[in-house]
Design goal:
The chain is an alpha/beta fold. It is 34% helix and 17% strand. It has a five-stranded mixed beta sheet, with helices on both faces.
């Protein structure tokens, strides 16, 4: 679900099995993406996965690094991540969002060959698009709570609001 001229293009790792079955991003119950998006101020209310097209009205979009569905992101190969990163660069160059937000720093590191990347804004530019690595909202990511994730997502929102 993408369009040209977005403020932020969120990029998940790959579709989980529930997302693949429903055709909607971050659809697995327990995934914290939709609550965190709202808590961080990106959306005025918490959207459901089947309402993802509404993101376009807020200048937001969603895509994935890897198109292949899997139960867990660790089932993906390094080659899939690298090829996904290459295809993502092409998509971002074509659509030119102001920010690309990769949801999962490990996915970012692998897809873009930056093993020391940390959560937050990155030095990398894709054309004129700036890049931010965000924490993965999967329920498996126990290092981050919804509240601490929302703080990081809000940092991105504030940067996007500044232009």
């Amino acid at each position: 679900m993408v369009a040209g001229g977005l403020s932020v293009l969120f990029c998940g790792i790959n579709p989980g099995l529930v997302s693949a079955a429903t055709g909607h991003h971050f659809a697995r119950p327990g995934n914290r993406f939709w609550p965190v998006l709202h808590l961080s101020g990106f959306t005025p209310r918490q959207l459901r996965p089947d309402e993802e097209r509404e993101l376009l009205t807020y200048g937001l979009g969603i895509t994935n690094v890897v198109a292949r569905a899997s139960a867990r992101a660790d089932e993906l190969s390094r080659e899939e991540y690298r090829e996904g990163g290459r295809l993502l660069v092409e998509k971002v160059e074509r659509l030119a969002p102001r920010w690309l937000a990769v949801v999962g720093v490990t996915a970012y590191r692998t897809a873009f060959g930056e093993p020391k990347a940390a959560i937050g804004p990155q030095e990398r530019l894709i054309g004129s698009t700036r890049v931010w690595a965000l924490p993965n909202p999967s329920g498996l990511n126990a290092h981050w709570t919804a509240a601490t994730m929302a703080e990081e997502y809000a940092r991105l929102r504030e940067a996007a609001d500044r232009g």
